[in-house]
Design brief:
Blueprint: H1 25-28, E1 31-34, H2 37-43, E2 47-49, H3 81-84, H4 90-106, E3 109-111, H5 114-119, H6 130-138, E4 146-148
Helix pairs in contact: 4-6
Length: about 160
């Protein structure tokens, strides 16, 4: 499968470090989902999820909040602003963004709300780290996860979305 032609960015892996505070024993023996040099540099080991015994969707979420629990600003509702405006720890903000890309690299699909598509007109759900996209492709997955927009009747979907 070919790489996507969507924008990529370089990440300073040697500056980004995540420390595991708690690991459920079941996750330590789980299936390896993503394993590449960048993942080992940042988290020290492959990304694993607990193996499933029942065929059903495996759902996870990634949310970045400010210290007081905000996920967006009233005057600028774009989601990435909370992480990108982290002036106290810019590498931490970049690490948050990379972690979202890591989770995307193992996802079958990404949920986008219609409001997200309106407030972020160039959102694509693609992976900005080429090493993570390559790891995804090596597992036989498409370069970009499927984008899903849940809606009651379709009238709230911004069909003029740019990407």
């Amino acid at each position: 499968m070919k790489r996507s032609k969507l924008p990529k960015m370089d990440f300073p892996y040697d500056e980004m470090k995540l420390t595991t505070l708690f690991a459920h024993p079941a996750s330590q023996s789980g299936d390896i989902v993503v394993d590449c040099d960048s993942v080992r540099k940042v988290i020290g080991e492959p990304l694993r999820f607990q193996a499933h015994r029942i065929l059903r969707p495996f759902i996870y979420n990634s949310v970045v909040t400010s210290i007081d629990g905000k996920i967006a600003f009233l005057d600028a509702p774009e989601g990435p602003l909370i992480a990108s405006k982290n002036h106290y720890d810019p590498t931490g903000a970049l690490t948050d963004w990379w972690l979202l890309n890591l989770l995307r690299s193992s996802a079958d699909a990404i949920l986008f709300g219609a409001n997200t598509l309106r407030s972020e007109p160039t959102a694509t759900g693609h992976i900005y780290d080429q090493t993570l996209e390559d790891a995804r492709i090596a597992k036989g997955l498409s370069p970009v996860p499927i984008n899903v927009i849940p809606t009651l009747d379709g009238t709230d979907i911004p069909f003029d979305h740019k990407e």
